[in-house]
Amino acid sequence: MQAYKKLLLANKAWAAEKLMLDEHYFDELAADQKPEFLWIGCADSRVPANEVTGTAPGELFVHRNVANLVLHTDINMLSVLQYAVEVLKVKHILVVGHYGCGGVKASMTNKDYGLINKWLRNIKEVYEKHETELNGIAEEQKRFDRLVELNVIEQVNNLAKTTIIQRSWHQRNYPQLHGWVFDLHTGLINPTVEILPGAEISPIYRYDFESDKKQDDISAEYEH
User: Fold this and answer.
1) Which of 10, 43, 149, 154 is a good FRET partner for 131, with 20 to 30 A between their CA atoms?
2) pTM (2 decimals)?
């Protein structure tokens, strides 16, 4: 049997099991989604978001890419972020990396990987920013693990720099931002950073939404 056919058989078994437990399971699943969390994780097949968090379908809104990057030029990621924050109104955003990340490992070398060099350059910039700390770690594996953690921290900081997040903080006082690292050897998640709504960020990245408030006030006046 070809491998992909096993997936289809497993799907049928899964669907039958769900219906056996609850005959309305798929009616409820199809009705709507109201996830409280946006998961921005690595595309690595060993880190399934729902499974490692014990969540059911509908509880996590998920975006994945190589090395869980949050880039201001990535329209795909920004579209997911905007939809999650402004439409789904998620309360928490989780940037989740993992030890042993191939993308982070590749960024630590001088090898030419072709097109993906452009993507990995973003992780190289994280390395350069923290070069003194990283070069001070003699053991290569520990240096690798630390870069995984620093990369997650930088991506969470990148979230806080977006107008999408800052506007939501200004209007609704959420979401809360979290940086986590999953350990493939233990199955446990290591929290590395947390940013609360309205947290101070560098002034150059801070946006002024007072004009939005004035426009809302004007609109409210006309409505009354």
Assistant:
1) 43
2) 0.90
